[in-house]
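Marked as duplicate of an earlier ticket. Keeping the data here for the record.
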Amino acid sequence: MDAAALYGEAASLSNHLTLHSAHLAFCAGRDFYAQGTEFGDNAALTEAITAYQRCLTLSPRPERPLDWAMTQVGLGNTLKQLAERESGTDKLKAAVAAYRQAMKEFTREHVPFQWAATRVGLGIRFRSSGSRERHRQARRSRCRLSRSAKGIYPRTRPLDWATTQNNLGGALFRLGRRESGTDKLEEAVAPIAEAMKEWTRERVRSIGR
């Protein structure tokens, strides 16, 4: 085997090892995140952040854009969980930044379901930020994000569809509580009622089993 072939084989092996390492880092982040959320383990969440950040270095955007975006989503989820347990808004702002990074690749045209899920997730971060800072603009932003995601999930994906409806209703409700009049509160009723058509007692019980 000549030198060029050997270098090619080495490069292929290196790429394979890098992909494997990136996969392991992502799985570690996912598992640490699950442990942190289920058991209230902040140290595990911190480990998850480290794992996701390592995964980002191993899955650069130009080479693996969708893997990179999915890792940004995982990082955003983890930062949000920590933010809910700490004072200040630094973690919330970092979570929003991670979600915005993900949306550079999770576009509506190419991956509409991932785009919608990320929009809804970003809306939830705005909700948390809004309640922490009492900032009405954050609530308005969440309403816009939830509305834009609303049409992506068809009724044939009932639980995703219901989640988006419920998020929109919640955003309108919180906004209505801060405004004079009842327009937003009345508007909130319809999407929440629609969500409950799919979130039936029987279906929720079957999911929990």
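See parent ticket for discussion. The mean pLDDT is 76.
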